[in-house]
Specification:
545 residues, membrane, transmembrane, transmembrane helix, DASS-Related_Transporters, mainly alpha
Length: 545
């Protein structure tokens, strides 16, 4: 799931009242009776009232501000356009100034209708204008919007069965006496879920399980934090078919979800291995010498290692649990199979004729797949009509926010399109790209997107907003658009491993009772190493294409 949509996790296991050393947050103590009442001046004359802390705005608010800013800039940025070939690709060197011919009333109408156009605006085949009453091709993100809601329903139904929670619990218990293998196993599972479906906020429900396990093995709370955050985070960074990152970006770049999957799989394997090795190295160091822990140990933490032998074995997976887990695996495997352009992957020729068994599915078919799969899982789990319906609706509701982010971001591009400034912005950076070696181009895309990922916390919103500008640059640099998608998602994923504007990071360190400053101290060497590896992969990918 989109790690920055700031939605609550789909489920949180209820494990009863937390013990004294439970990793979940505890209620703050009551205020000191001798402390001055809120809003009154203290005795030393300090200013009255509590200090207000800055809260980073939500992705929806950021995009509203971006919409207004782009609309205002459209009055200043001159209109222009490129000549295009039959497939709609802009031709390098053909940029020329034009007149949008828009009156103030029409510009106000574009601003007013931007969310509507972002959902189901249609682009006129003759004028290129986008509007809800035009005749032509769909420009809005209605297909992606429905796909996000469908996969939200599917994920929520799966978690409601409890099969995934119990499966991970069984894995953790079986490996409880093999610490390094446990860390690697949990991180690999989380990374796999991250790379195929954006597993991020769902990790918040696992701290109550993983923190005691790691303490029982003689590790500290930083090991548990890193196992969860970095395990899922590296999977999202190296998204292979993650619909909220790769899927949305591929759609905005007008390429298939399967384009570039070979590079992304290779990057996922290498970076996941490096990240697991980094966490295990620290874990072994702490276990051998507890004084080297970056966070120390809370009262009772060291006692858990002594009680490890008394851990109660979780109940075995039921036949129903196994059936649900196999079904989920098959659904995602089929999704991957359906979107991969097998002829291009196996022959190395992107223009090769598709094989007979290729499906060539896109967002409409995938949305239908997950809608049907949600019902299938509910029937297999014998949830009953009322519970299945309620859970389905709950899943759709929880994913409305990231879906709306996509719509608002697409609405920004409709303003730019109708004002005819998109090509002007593209031309402004064309000179920077022209003559740049392919490898350097891929690295530039990665670097440029780092600050954008901070300013636009939502990965799906960031993709929808940036891809219409970045993807054509790949054509000018004679690089595959899939490399741009890979470089973009790597930048977004890298930032989301540490920025304090995401619920995954701040919620995670709070649940584990690890200071954010300590987490940054732990993770920065890994971030530097990952940045170097990412630049190498995107540079190599650009050269090879």
């Amino acid at each position: 799931m989109d790690p920055n949509a700031q939605q609550p996790p789909a489920r949180k296991p209820d494990n009863g009242p937390p013990p004294d050393d439970d990793p979940r947050p505890v209620e703050p103590p009551p205020p000191d009776a001798d402390a001055p009442a809120e809003g009154t001046a203290p005795a030393d004359g300090a200013p009255a009232g509590p200090r207000r802390r800055f809260t980073f705005p939500s992705a929806l608010t950021v995009l509203v501000v971006v919409t207004l800013a782009v609309w205002a800039l459209a009055f200043v940025i001159p209109s222009g356009s490129y000549d295009r070939n039959a497939s709609g690709t802009p031709l390098q060197g053909t940029y020329h100034r034009t007149s949008s011919g828009q009156s103030l009333t029409e510009r106000l109408g574009d601003l007013f209708l931007s969310p509507v156009n972002g959902l189901y605006g249609v682009q006129d085949a003759k004028t290129g204008k986008v509007g809800p009453t035009m005749a032509g091709e769909l420009y809005g993100s209605a297909g992606v919007f429905l796909f996000v809601l469908a996969i939200g329903a599917f994920i929520t139904v799966v978690f409601a069965t409890g099969a995934l929670d119990r499966g991970i619990g069984r894995l953790a218990h079986r490996l409880r006496h093999r610490g390094a293998l446990l860390i690697a196993g949990v991180m690999a599972v989380f990374s796999l879920l991250g790379t195929v479906e954006g597993f991020a906020e769902e990790t918040l429900g696992f701290y109550g399980l993983v923190v005691p396990l790691m303490l029982a093995l003689g590790y500290d709370r930083m090991v548990a934090t890193a196992t969860i955050i970095l395990g899922a985070g590296i999977g999202v960074l190296c998204s292979t078919v993650n619909p909220f990152a790769t899927g949305v970006a591929s759609s905005a770049a007008d390429i298939s979800l399967g384009d570039g999957i070979v590079l992304r799989v290779a990057m996922w394997l290498v970076l996941t291995g490096v990240t697991i090795g980094y966490v295990i190295r620290y874990a072994r160091r702490v276990r051998a010498d507890p004084d080297r822990s970056l966070v120390g140990f809370r009262p009772g933490d060291r006692d858990r290692a002594k009680a490890a032998e008394d851990a109660t074995e979780p109940p075995p997976l039921t036949r129903l649990d196994r059936t649900v887990l196999v079904t989920v695996a098959l659904v995602f495997a089929f999704m991957i199979f359906s979107v991969i352009p097998w002829s291009g992957v196996l022959t190395g020729d992107a223009d090769a004729a598709p094989y007979a068994f290729e499906l060539g599915w896109s967002f409409p078919q995938l949305a239908a797949l997950f809608l049907a799969s949600s019902i299938l899982v509910g029937l297999l789990a014998r949830m009953g009509e009322q519970r299945l319906s309620a859970t389905f609706v709950q899943g759709v509701a929880e994913f409305v926010s990231p879906a709306l982010v996509i719509v608002l971001a697409r609405g920004v591009t409709t303003i730019m399109n109708n004002a005819q400034i998109t090509d002007t912005v593209l031309h402004a950076v064309e000179s920077t790209v022209s003559g740049v070696p392919s490898a350097l181009f891929g690295i530039m895309v990665y670097v440029v997107n780092l600050p954008l990922a901070f300013l636009i916390p939502s990965t799906s919103g960031h993709a929808t907003l940036a891809m219409p500008i970045l993807a054509p640059l790949a054509d000018f640099a004679h690089v595959s658009r899939a490399v741009v998608v890979t470089a973009w998602q790597a930048a977004s994923g890298w930032m989301n491993l540490w920025v304090p504007t995401t619920a995954v990071i701040m919620g995670g360190v709070s649940l584990a009772k690890v200071g954010y400053d300590r987490y940054l101290r732990f993770v920065w060497p890994l971030l530097a190493l990952l940045a170097v590896l990412i630049c190498g992969f995107v540079g190599l990918g650009a050269v090879m294409t």
